[in-house]
Amino acid sequence: MTHLADHYRAYIACLNDQRWDGLGSFVASDVTHNGRSFGLDGYRRMLISDFETIPDLSFKIALLVCEPPYVSARLEFDCSPKSTFLGLAINGRRISFAENVFYEFRDMQIVSVWSILDKAAIEDQLERHAPFEDTQSSNS
Question: pTM for the complete prediction?
């Protein structure tokens, strides 16, 4: 693996350890996320909010491809959001899903992030594990 791949792994460790003061070592001050200008402070706020919504959030690298200045990864999550996540009422239930994400680096800092979460996988889990509905009472 390249030096950039190792640097990316260190970035993921920074996220998992919630070392927000160290985020600037990995993320540029002018970072964009899905085409929107976030800046480092906005990016940090987004991540902090993610951890507040999902206290057991942990980023796991399932697949990593590095072709400098780009890194792409498939990240896997197995977690329990406290309430609503991606507009879905999770309410503490355990869900598993993946994120496919591409990063562009400049001078070893992330300048652009393009991310897609597998919301369909979450919807499928919620549907399969929906609470039992009493069809008898609705037919009476």
Answer: 0.87
